[in-house]
């Protein structure tokens, strides 16, 4: 919600009213009027938004797309995180020393790029966004050395090579975002991509010239230089994306001047295809980490004024991951009509603390606002429709293969279905440049068999058969090192660098009694309410509840949920395994769907996907005959997903199961995910414990058993289930740190015991305080964040 307006200044209010009157009459918005409207408050603010929305709607009608909001399904490729600039709000960049500590290459290799892009193509992505630091070779000798070693004159020369490679190998279209470019460089890059982009951010010279300001010491953030690039892009007929950044210290007048400058260059050349209005979000470990986020009222006003300045036929983009979903109505109500690029696979590596919304959720929220979500290409329909003017001849066939011929938006088919092969689209690569294996990342020496299998798995998990996955699960020595390095690369370039943890408490519902006795693990509904209140008071954002309520007690699963809600209304309830849900369904006569709907109505948010060891009846009969039958577990978890619950997924390994049975389990989990999209994470859990159980490879150390299992989980589930959780309670803290280098990205929960009935949690005594988790992660040189159950950033979740 917006904060109440400040006390209105009569003179300013009159200026705003006059500006709105002229805009309503269709007058061109000039600098003074734009400035006045950016300061709109109260009724004037509401009128500003209504006017902007009506202008947007007129433009959509003229374009033949009434009621449509667009987005691009993309993969985010951070080609290099080295940069010569020193922006005070950026966490994207690394120094060479930081890269060394992270065991991260100076540039992504072609193989690493294709591993990400091919997975994206398989998920229906049509855009590969190449983002990188500005001209790192001008600052860092390590960047210059890498380019020289691989035969490239510059970073932009390598960008061109990678862009051609992506389209040649996958048919996907590349959007280039490489920073400042000269006219010659724009001309050189035009045949490799149908669109390019660079944020103007602001025209404020103060932010660039004054020591201590956000752009001081960053040569590529000179506003005159950036405007010149945008101007040159117009002269070169490059469809261009640009925009402003709101809340980095610029004044209202700066904001207005920036929008006017973008309109002026677009009017000269017609090349600005969309204007992004992006809100500043403070990030840890930056000079601006303590600065306030962009004010919501000012941000929404900037969106509305951008619409009025740019007119009805410009696309106005607002990044959906930088705003809470509750704010979407304000942004759409202010004239926005594009969500920008959204990835089902990769993190937003520039804003890694802000996960993308799930595309189904984004479509649903868009529909709630009265609009239809439609996918577009990197080049917007107007430029696709006039390909002779705006697209280099080398790009016309690739774009046509993915464009709907009637609308210029994206075809509804995937890349693979839209084009039989992109091999003839772009020139074949110079073999002297790419070399053997597309420069496989430097790793410990390993037999080519395992390394090649791992890289194939990273490219496309579906191409490996069961025997090949078994080979990976049984890797040892240098082979295992190569496997885990490949898996960790996939983790890095998809979900990103962050290690996450949720602050939670376990409650074992098996201890619920109508009248508890002397057993400290027993509790009643009043105790449950107090447990929830205590957990919330201790900072927990989640309570995890699982376990069968004894048959001689009432099946009070729903009553327990209500008691927990009464104790802590805002806490996330992660409650009840499939076996528990079936127990509720059978004992109450509700049936499976009825039980799930009743739990949802009572306040359950997500469900644990536990209660199964290995999805094999043979294994269940030997290890856990009391567990739910496999087909009933599958039925329950898919039903839970269908009614809107997200869930975890697990595999308990190291007992009697074979490697083939582990692979079959992972394939089944992936198959369910392809049907429902309901799994948030996968947890490979050793059974019976830290000793590692029965090894797949005789004599292999327990830690290597775990490394192989985590790495194979990451590779086989990549592009399907994003997060691999490390069960620190089973492997111990030191080994957990090792497994975070093997493809893992999450540590699960803190498992607070609490002060009320601490024995009522199944893993009582195994707490992982936030400070301890931070110390565990620190040697990895990766950011550590507190998350919510559904992997959003928890309030105050930036630990370091």
Q: Helical proportion?
A: 40-55%
Shape: globular
Number of strands: 19
What is the radius of gyration? 27 Å
Structural class: alpha/beta
Beta fraction: 5-15%
- Show unreliable segments: 420-432, 440-445
Mean pLDDT: 92
Number of helical segments? 33
Q: What would you note in describing this structure?
A:
By secondary structure, the chain is α/β, with parallel strands linked by helices. 44% of the residues lie in helices and 13% in strands. It has 33 helices and 19 strands. The strands form four sheets. Strands 1, 2, 3, 4, 5, 6, 7, 8 and 9 form a nine-stranded parallel β-sheet that branches. Helix 3 crosses helix 12, helix 20 (448-459) packs parallel to helix 22 and helix 21 (466-473) crosses helix 29. The radius of gyration is 27 Å and the shape is globular. 54% of the residues are buried. Residues 420-432 and 440-445 have low confidence and may be disordered.
């Amino acid at each position: 919600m917006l904060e109440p307006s400040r006390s209105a200044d009569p003179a300013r209010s009159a200026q705003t009213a006059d500006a709105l009157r002229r805009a309503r009459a269709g007058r061109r918005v000039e600098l003074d009027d734009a400035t006045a409207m950016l300061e709109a408050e109260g009724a004037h603010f509401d009128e500003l938004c209504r006017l902007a929305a009506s202008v947007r709607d007129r433009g959509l009608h003229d374009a033949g797309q009434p009621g449509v909001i667009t987005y691009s399904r993309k993969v985010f490729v951070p080609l290099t995180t080295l940069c010569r600039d020193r922006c005070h709000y950026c966490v994207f960049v690394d120094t060479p020393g930081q890269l060394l500590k992270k065991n991260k290459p100076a540039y992504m290799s072609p193989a690493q790029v294709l591993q990400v892009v091919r997975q994206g193509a398989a998920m229906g992505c049509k855009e590969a966004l190449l983002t990188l630091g500005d001209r790192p070779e001008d600052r860092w000798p390590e960047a210059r050395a890498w380019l020289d070693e691989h035969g490239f004159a510059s970073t932009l020369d390598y960008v061109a090579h990678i862009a051609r490679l992506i389209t040649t190998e996958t048919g996907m279209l590349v959007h280039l975002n490489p920073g400042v470019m000269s006219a010659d460089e724009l001309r050189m890059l035009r045949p490799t991509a149908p669109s390019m982009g660079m944020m103007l951010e602001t025209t404020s010279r103060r932010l660039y010239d004054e020591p201590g300001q956000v752009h001081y010491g960053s040569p590529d953030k000179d506003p005159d230089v950036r405007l010149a690039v945008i101007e040159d892009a117009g002269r070169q007929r490059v469809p261009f994306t640009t925009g402003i950044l709101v809340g980095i210290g610029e004044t209202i007048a700066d904001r207005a001047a920036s929008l006017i400058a973008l309109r002026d260059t677009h009017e000269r050349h017609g090349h600005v295809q969309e204007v992004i209005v992006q809100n500043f979000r403070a990030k840890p470990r930056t000079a601006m980490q303590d600065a306030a986020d962009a004010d919501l009222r000012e941000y929404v006003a900037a969106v509305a004024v951008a619409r009025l300045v740019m007119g009805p036929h410009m696309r106005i983009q607002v990044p959906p991951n930088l705003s809470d979903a509750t704010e979407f109505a304000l942004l759409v109500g202010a004239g926005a009509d594009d969500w920008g690029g959204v990835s089902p696979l990769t993190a937003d590596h520039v804003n890694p603390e802000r996960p993308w919304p799930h595309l189904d959720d984004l479509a649903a929220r868009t529909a709630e606002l009265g609009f239809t979500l439609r996918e577009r290409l990197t080049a917007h329909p107007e430029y696709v429709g006039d390909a002779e003017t705006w697209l280099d001849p080398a790009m016309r066939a690739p774009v046509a293969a993915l464009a709907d011929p009637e609308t210029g938006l994206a075809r509804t088919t995937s890349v693979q279905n839209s084009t039989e092969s992109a091999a003839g689209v772009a020139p074949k690569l110079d073999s002297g440049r790419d070399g053997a294996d597309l420069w496989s990342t430097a790793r410990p020496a390993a037999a080519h068999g395992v390394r090649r299998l791992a890289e194939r798995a990273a490219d496309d998990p579906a191409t490996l058969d069961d025997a090949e996955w078994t080979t990976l699960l049984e890797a040892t020595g240098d082979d295992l090192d190569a496997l885990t390095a490949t898996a960790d690369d996939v983790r890095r370039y998809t979900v990103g660098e962050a290690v996450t943890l949720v602050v939670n408490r376990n409650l074992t519902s098996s201890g619920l009694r109508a009248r508890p006795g002397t057993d400290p693990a027993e509790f009643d509904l009043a105790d449950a309410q107090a447990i929830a209140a205590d957990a919330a008071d201790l900072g927990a954002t989640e309570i995890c509840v699982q376990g069968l309520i004894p048959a001689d007690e009432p099946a009070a699963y729903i009553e327990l949920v209500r008691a927990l809600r009464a104790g802590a209304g805002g806490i996330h309830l992660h409650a009840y395994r499939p076996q528990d849900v079936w127990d509720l369904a059978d004992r109450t006569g509700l049936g499976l769907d009825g039980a799930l709907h009743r739990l949802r109505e009572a306040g359950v948010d997500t469900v644990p996907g536990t209660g199964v060891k290995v999805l094999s009846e043979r294994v269940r009969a030997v290890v856990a005959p009391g567990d739910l039958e496999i087909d009933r577990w599958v039925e329950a978890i898919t039903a839970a997903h269908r009614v809107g619950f997200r869930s975890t997924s697990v595999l308990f390994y190291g007992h009697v199961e074979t490697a083939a049975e582990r692979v079959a389990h992972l394939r089944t989990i992936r198959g369910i995910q392809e049907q429902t999209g309901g799994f948030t994470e996968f947890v490979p859990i050793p059974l019976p414990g830290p000793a590692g159980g029965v090894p797949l490879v005789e004599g292999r150390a327990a830690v290597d058993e775990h490394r192989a299992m985590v790495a194979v989980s990451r590779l086989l589930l990549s592009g399907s289930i994003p997060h691999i959780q490390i069960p620190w309670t089973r492997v111990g803290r030191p080994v957990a740190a090792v497994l975070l280098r093997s493809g893992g990205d999450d540590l699960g929960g803190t498992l607070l015991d609490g002060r009320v009935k601490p024995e009522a949690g199944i893993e009582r005594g195994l707490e992982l305080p936030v400070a301890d988790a931070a110390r565990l992660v620190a040697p990895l040189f990766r950011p550590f964040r507190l998350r919510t159950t559904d992997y959003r950033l928890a309030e105050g979740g930036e630990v370091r």
